[in-house]
Design goal:
- 15% of the residues lie in helices and 31% in strands.
- It has 211 residues and is α+β, with helices and mostly antiparallel strands.
- It has one domain: 2-Layer Sandwich (Dihydrodipicolinate Reductase, domain 2).
- The chain has an eight-stranded mixed β-sheet with strand order 3-6-7-1-8-9-10-11, covered by helices on one side.
- Strand 4 and strand 5 form a beta hairpin.
- It is elongated.
């Protein structure tokens, strides 16, 4: 998607819309995923499902310039799949985001907990010359196989765009060699102390983090 944008497939980007299902954070969860529905654990739909998808969006289209967002918890309880036990939901299961990208394009994102009978991942990029669409069976963009469709110029509808092999990063299958253990060298405590004393001081570096 990023390379198609750079190559001018859609022309100037006017807007982008992303709709996704978190797959987790829904009405029924497996026991090992129950922790997702407790916000105290920090494994939220915002930070995981939406966060990864939004990171990919910004990598393709640029960073966000203006932003407003709303989160809410619509489901009050959820069920453990194997036991039928009902528990209280404390994590937000709806996240809505709108804003502008650094280039001026309009941005809209909506992620919802669980899965949908309709669309579970739909990302569209609309431009002056064409349109791109990415779809998948789940909203966890880094897990599910994705289809890319596009149309431009005189085309009146979208068509599947084959993904070249160089964009598929899955390593070749085969028997893996067992890892080799690095050679270990015994160092005396006196040597460690001597090198600590003689080592030059570290230069401190500052890092700015924008949220």
């Amino acid at each position: 998607m990023r390379d198609l944008i750079k190559q001018g497939y859609v022309g100037e980007v006017l807007s982008t819309t992303l709709i996704g299902s978190g797959m987790g954070w829904g009405p029924t969860v497996e026991p090992f995923n129950a922790y997702l529905n407790d916000k105290k654990n920090g494994a939220t739909m915002l930070s995981i499902a939406l966060g990864h998808a939004a990171d990919a969006l910004c990598d393709c289209l640029g960073e966000v310039r203006e932003l407003s967002a709303t989160m809410t918890m619509r489901r009050k309880t959820f069920t453990i799949a194997e036991t039928g036990e009902s528990k209280h939901m404390t994590a937000d299961d709806q996240v809505c985001v709108s804003g502008l990208l650094e280039g001026g394009a309009a941005l809209s994102i909506h992620y919802r907990g669980g899965s949908s009978r309709g669309t579970n991942l739909l990302w569209e990029i609309n431009g002056t010359e064409g349109d791109l669409q990415l779809t998948a069976a789940g909203g966890q963009a880094r897990i599910f196989e994705m289809d890319v469709r596009g149309g431009k110029g005189a085309q009146s509808s979208l068509e599947i765009l084959p993904v070249p092999e160089q964009y598929r990063w899955s390593p070749p299958q085969g028997r893996a060699r067992p890892p080799t253990s690095p050679k270990r060298t015994r160092v005396s405590p006196a040597t460690i102390a001597r090198e600590r004393i003689s080592a030059p001081p570290l230069k401190t570096r500052s890092r700015a983090i924008a949220c």
